[in-house]
Write a structure and sequence with these properties.
Elements (H helix, E strand, L loop, with lengths): L10 H14 L3 H10 L1 H6 L12
C-alpha cells in the first residue's frame, strides 16, 4: 500500500527542533527561518535541507 502525503520525520528530529525552539526562545516562524538559513545544522539534527525541509 502506498502512503499519501508528506514524508514523515523521526520523532527524535522533531524533539530536537522543539528543544532548539525552547532554548532559543523562537516562535514557529523563527524556528523555520533558523533551520532554513542554517541547512548544515538542520541536516545535523535530522532534517533534509533539500527535500521536504521542515515539518512545521
Amino acid at each position: 500500500m502506498h502512503k499519501l502525503g508528506r514524508l514523515s520525520y523521526s520523532n527524535q528530529s522533531i524533539l530536537k527542533a522543539l528543544f532548539i525552539q525552547k532554548v532559543k526562545g523562537f516562535n514557529n516562524r523563527e524556528l523555520i527561518y533558523f533551520l532554513r538559513t542554517n541547512p548544515k545544522f538542520a541536516q545535523t539534527i535530522g532534517f533534509d535541507p533539500i527535500n521536504n525541509f521542515c515539518p512545521f
